[in-house]
Amino acid sequence: MVVNRGPGGAxxxxxxxxxxxxxSYGPRRGFVERTVRPGYISRTYVVGGRSYAHVYxxxxxxGFGYYRYVPAFYYGPRFYAWAITPWxxxxxxxWGSAFVAPWLxxxxxxxxxxxxxxxxxxxxxxxxENLRLAYESQQAGDDGQAPALASGAxxxxxxxxxxxxAMVAEEVGQQLAAEKAAAANPGQPAxxxxxxxxxxxxxAVRVFVVSSALDVTADGSxxxxxxxxxxVTRIDNTPDANQNVSALVTASKKTDCPTGQRVGVSVxxxxxxxxxxxxxxxxxxxxxxxxxxxxxxNVSAAGARPVAEGTADPAxxxxxxLAAQETDAxxxxxxxxxxxxxx
Length: 343
Fold this sequence. Notes:
Layout: E1 2-5, E2 11-17, E3 20-24, E4 30-37, E5 40-47, E6 50-61, E7 64-70, E8 73-74, H1 77-83, E9 91-92, E10 114-115, H2 118-141, H3 162-184, E11 207-209, E12 214-218, E13 222-226, E14 231-234, E15 244-251, E16 262-266, H4 267-289, E17 305-306, H5 318-338
Antiparallel strand pairs: 1-2, 2-3, 3-4, 4-5, 5-6, 6-7, 8-17, 9-10, 11-14, 12-13, 12-16, 14-15, 15-16
Helix pairs in contact: 1-3, 2-3, 2-4
């Protein structure tokens, strides 16, 4: 069992091994990872008492194992074209508490009130989702109490600028184009070679939104932390012997690694960020396809079709496993404190 406390107090607990892991962020949030068929694993995520599964394809690169997210649905080409086409006039959108809460973005991230195209709305949606999940993880780590870092503690200078949002929006557009191409050739990923470079090393993929608390090494020796919603830009294409690459902190919150800091990040961590990026885009696309983003133009005939290799049933005992693991972790931490080992 590995117990890690993030900079804001969020606790992540991990047991098992890749392909058979339990990762919890409190007793009611986390995921259970298991093999569903040769070469594929599923993660049953539990969030707010709701369980759902995502599928990933396993592959190796230079002796290291990686996962690549496999969508559960693809849409028709017209829908992907619509998602990157301006509406002609900016469309207003009211962000409700069901998707983003003010304490998640005050002082760092504020969603726009109007959007010129669907991909710009998707950009704010995925940023808001990262910050919401970060808050929930921190709250769970504090046993349901309010996080120590409130929005008022964030520096006004630590603001996600329009330029930074534009960089993320460009990545969103590239991912939509890549998914459109994959939808036209759904069998291509399964036929690819076993040894392949992760998407996180693709020269076209440079900007990453941090999806969970991460400790990194700055300037070769100093330690600092990144949390969900921070943004890093990869500046190396070739990983070192430990599969680490250099990245630049492009945007961060007050208590995290400072903006402009050069840090070393594992390719595995970047690939996880890329997977989460794709998952959140797909979540936002589904909202648009189902016309759940109230106030934005309706979509007709999105042409959604299931992807067999991206479908798996949630593990029925996932929530029980997370709760049991959190109980064991609390016992372990208490034992460490009693023995004088600190937090």
